[in-house]
Design brief:
Length: about 210
Amino acid sequence: MNLLLIDSSSYKIEFAVFNNGREIVRHVLSETENADALIYNIAARCEENNFTLRALDYVSISNGPGSFTGLRISSAIAKAICLGAAAKLIELNSLDILANKIQTDKIIVPLIFSNSRTNEFYFSRYKKQELLERKSDYSISLLSSIINEDDFFVSDSVIQGFEKSVLISDSSNLTSQFELTANYISQNKFSDYNTSEPFYMKEFIPLKSQKKLL
């Protein structure tokens, strides 16, 4: 299995390459680089390891919600590589990836900022035994409407006023993404790269009259 993983949904932009199932590249872009440098780094790291992108069988991306610019760039890169290499595209929800990093008996609630000024978040609820199981729809709401003392909250960003109740996960997402990707491959769950676009752009509807809810 030749596989490229890309996660540019947050401030940490990273990717990994697998050749015959063995990881040969894992790279995090520096703080001075943005998503525009992603394709250059992918090509350069592959060349250093004598691996050609045309050999890829699968490309897996974290497809949102998250950074608007990062998601658009990684989506465009993934579609171009799939077209050139005849590879299959796998799109994973960023909330799934974040939740899959946690092992607990509690309900897991990943939080990804939609609007930091109003404390509005993308979220869903999960249980994880051996495999991750989503227990609710992907949703968007104010933090005050999401909080439940019995749940386990995780985010990749600091949430002001809620720091003690949320695990801030700044470790790599790629291990979690690889696990979910392998499961998708086993189920033949692939996306059409001709029509692919970041998930939140078509699935999430922003709240209206936010001021009335504060």
